[in-house]
Here is the input.
Amino acid sequence: MAAAKSLTQIEIDKVMQFVETSLYAQRNKLMLQFSLLAGMRVSEIADLKLCDVRDADGTVRSEIYLAAERVKHHHARTVYVSTKLQADIADYLQSRNWFAEDQPLFTTHRGPRCGFSANTLTQHFFWMYRHAGIKGASSHSGRKTFLTSLASKGISVFVLASLAGHRSISTTQRYISVNDDLKRRAVELV
Here is the structure.
């Protein structure tokens, strides 16, 4: 299987512009944001429930705890939610009617109880990127973009591994794309 593509800001803008014109625009944008801004795996995004992102008092959480049985390789982890992502979540939550705390956060056209499976969300991401005209992007591209972006800002690979839920930094290093712009900025630091 080919490695996921790390997206440029132009490509991110392009897919977001496409999403804004599509059916279920707010839902689709937020699903992409979980990938791009929190580095979540598509299976983790598909599995999110209302109670994962909202406290009992209705406030949006700054951390999402994922128990071991919900995470690849069965290693529990905490996903840290930026203030930007928190605001996007709050807007999304206000735009919908919720009937239960264990309701899927992202539902399909089949109704409020029908959440995405990891496979259907993988396909959904693939087609969003394809329709936006971005070649080589997959459901893993947001996660790779998240890690590459943080690495380019000087974040330690140890922090990146923790954010990604990796137990080994060698796994994390495979996610980080090195490009000419990154190399240019690096030599300017000398």
About this structure: The chain has one domain: 9-142. The chain has a mean pLDDT of 90. The CA atoms of residues 122 and 139 lie 5 Å apart. The chain is about 50% helix and 5% strand.
